[in-house]
What we know:
This protein has 455 residues and is mainly α. The protein has a single domain, classed as MFS general substrate transporter like domains (Growth Hormone, Chain: A, Up-down Bundle). Helix content is 80%, strand content 0%. It has 16 helices and no strands. The longest helix is centred in the middle third of the chain and has 33 residues, at 286-318. The protein is globular and about 60 Å long.
Amino acid sequence: MSASTISSRPQTHFVRAVLRQRGFRRLTSVRMIAQFGDGLFQGALAGSVLFNPEQRAGGMAIAAGFAILLLPYSLVGPYVGVFLDRWRRRSIVSVANIVRALLVLPISLYIWGGEKSPIPFLLALVVIGLNRFFLAGLSAATPHVVADSTLVTANSFAGTLGSLSYSLGIGAGAALIKTVLATSFHGYALVAAMAAVFYLLSALVGRTSFGPDELGPDAASRTRGSILAALGETSRGTVAGVRHLAAKRGAAYLVLAQATFRLLYGVVLLASLLLFRTVFNHGDDVTGSFGTIANAFLAGGVGMLLASFVTPPITRRIGGWRWVAIVLAGTGLAILGFGLPFDPVLLLGAVFVTNLAAQGIKIVTDTSLQHECADEYRGRVFSINDTAFNLTLVAGMYIGALTLPETGRSALVLCVIAACYVLAAAGYAALGGRWARRVGDDIAAPDGLLKRQAR
């Protein structure tokens, strides 16, 4: 069922218009359940390395850990997009979660034993890779459950509620570690194992909520043939996806803006982790440190939730490109104002603003990709965007590892990062603003933009 068949009458971007769509409510439930499990699993995995009294890691080791977990899938992400445009996305949603549930259990056993083996990391690579595949499939499926005119609100709510669920999963894991379980390999292993329940529940909801072809790709545009033939088409399909994205200048500028944000965010993220591990960790209390950083995730979740409410009305009024420029500049100012005092409470304010900006940019970027890119290319362009999303974060963390002290406290680095955010805002305002003024804004006036593209 395509978005155009859901409703032919005019619809607003307001929440009620989106929530009236049963398919959207069900797709969002699938996302929220799975991402709560992600929070449990990834929080336990990180905690077993970063906040375990039996194992401590420095800045370069943290950056290397993120690289190990994110880069392998990122390198093949655009190729996976070809399959997103071939396979039923309902099957992707359910099968990916079932496989993740099965893999989490042996990983939990390895964490329980505290074994220093590459096997759990290799299995974690697959779990997190399948997560990115799963999320890209959800993004590509969203236009099939809501009307085009409500995509910005749909992306706002779905992405933000998913991220909030992820933060709540981390918070729930931290609460269990502090109150019921121990800050040890055994405690983290039990939290990680709980994620399997949520992956299975998400798979069940996705399987029972939609028909086989309801989430796309459309039967007319889906490529058929053997898997070997699909693998042979991968490189050509990826190149075609890149060309298609490059031809959609508004979406391409947003992908670049988001990648720049993530590059700088990588430095800020590493600095924050090191600060919570050292400067803000009085008396070497790793349990308290893990709880404090869980508060940071909660502050970030609140920022994302607020972004879901303010982004749709603001972008309808001023345009997506202006909102992206504003939040980029605002992030730089927040880092200066809240970050430089190096106070744990004030730093939560910087986390709040940064996550609000990150989610606001993501909402605008996803909506632009959905509006501008044809359905037969949508899986590929979302995978390309996802690759840039992860690669730039890891690159930023390595930059941070090379420039930050082991405590993470460096006024010079924070000032440079803040200045770069402001410069990025100015650069995007010049490029993205010029293009939007030339062809129209795809969020403030999506119908007009689509008509111009059809000419």
